[in-house]
Amino acid sequence: MSSVIVVGAGLAGLSAACHLVGRGHDVTVLEREAVPGGRAGRIERDGYAFDTGPTVLTMPELLAQAFAAAGADMDSLLTLRRLDPAYRAVFADGSVINVRAGRDAMAAEIRATSGPKDAAAFERFATWLARLYAVEMPSFIDRNFDSLTDLARPPGPGLTLLRMGAFGRLGNVVARTFDDERLHRLFTFQAMYAGLAPAQALAVYAVITYMDSIEGVWYPVGGIHAVPTALATAADKAGAQLRYGVDVNRILLASGSTGPVRGVRLRGGEVVAADAVVCTLDLPVAYDRLLPGLTPPRAARRGRFSPSAVVWHVGMRGQQSPDDVGHHNIHFGTEWDQAFRALMRSGTLMPDPSLLVSVPTVTEPSLAPPDGSVLYVLEPVPNLDGQIDWTAERPRMRERLHAHITRLGYGGDVVVEEMVDPLDWERQGMARGTPFALAHTFGQTGPFRPANTDRRAPGLVFAGSGTVPGVGVPMVLISGRLAADRVDEAAR
Ligand SMILES: Cc1cc2nc3c(=O)[nH]c(=O)nc-3n(C[C@H](O)[C@H](O)[C@H](O)COP(=O)(O)OP(=O)(O)OC[C@H]3O[C@@H](n4cnc5c(N)ncnc54)[C@H](O)[C@@H]3O)c2cc1C
Prior knowledge:
This protein has 16 helices and 19 strands. It is of the alpha/beta class and 492 residues long. The strands form five sheets. A seven-stranded mixed β-sheet has the order 7-6-15-16-17-14-18. Strands 9-2-1-13-19 form a five-stranded parallel β-sheet, with helices on one face. The chain has a three-stranded antiparallel β-sheet with strand order 10-11-12, with no helix packed on it.
């Protein structure tokens, strides 16, 4: 048993804490905010409650593993409902395809909207995706890498992926599979979650499509913020100490700027000693602020970061018609490849952007006062490496989003609102103003991504979206477990 400090009570830190405390370590979680959650935060105003970050929850079994690691039963702390449809996709011509829960229901939806040939193709595609996931998860996602050669150890999984065409372009694989172009968008837009344009992403990233379109999308009663709240309860009950409102301003190393970890220093001067520190700040920011003597890995300094997002939280008077609005609505613009070129190459706004509009009050009306609704409007935008002056753009963006959702049919008076732009993400401690970290280009994935250890500082371990395996709720939950494995290795 060793004493371990976890810096940050976001989902990565809480997952790490649950795994570490379950293995008998003496765990202290230090969080600067007053509540757990980090990016999975919550705003409450005038009777409206908003989730601030993730809205699409996938792979609940990974979450259950974190609870189980702390000896807790997820179902006793959290109620999850599977959403059906997972998404309602609305295309520029006004047509709608629902991403239904379950393969049979989805095949029936495709038969009705795109015809029997594409429905049969979906059956084959879903089987291919499931196999892709089964090969990738244990060999390339849910494991620590010590060197590049680990990629080929054992060689079987890599060869299987090669044979499956997983190193081709995702856009090409999907275009060859389906005739209906709407399905090309529906089954490739998830590349965006990894910071990639669908046409450029390798087909290996179709595992994200598998996670939401095949395994399904879930809603935790109370909103996504209920997830970190429940994880924090589990960690606390298992014996972890959680301290809120404490800002860590240095990770202490034996010889000043290098050497074994000794603990952390808080703003105000208090020193908390530990044998190991799991740091979950956005990795480039962690090096910059907490480890000023250590040069960050190359990707953290010069890598390609994912696009960012503007999120407009709106509390409306008036309900949205459940016949016309789903819990998650994706509104595809007419532009596609050109929109991604603007976003990722030119660093400009998408012409005719696609929007995610989540309306959690469709599932849980009590998130708003009676006769009210909560809208979460997300537009992908360039990160701060792009060309936008956000101080000037912000008010224009708000007006455009308002006009856009009104055109799309969302009605009601805006009662409360809050907009978050890339400058806000940067202020919250996210490098380049993106909450989606380093993009998952092949050269920034797996053993090429900044590692979760730094051999100059034994006992220092990273977790969260800037390290392995990467971005998104399922990945950062895994990163917490991988971090716990690293702590165990260091303690041996
Ligand atoms: C708008 C948005 C939409 C998203 N949508 C989805 C989605 O639909 N599905 C999905 O799977 N993922 C989504 N994500 C991504 C997902 O939310 C993140 O990958 C994940 O929540 C990151 O968790 P984390 O623990 O790594 O980081 P964080 O949540 O950022 O946790 C880091 C914690 O460290 C704390 N901290 C920072 N500095 C200090 C310090 N000096 N001292 C002490 N504590 C400190 C912070 O307060 C924070 O609590 C979305 C994210 C955003 C922002």
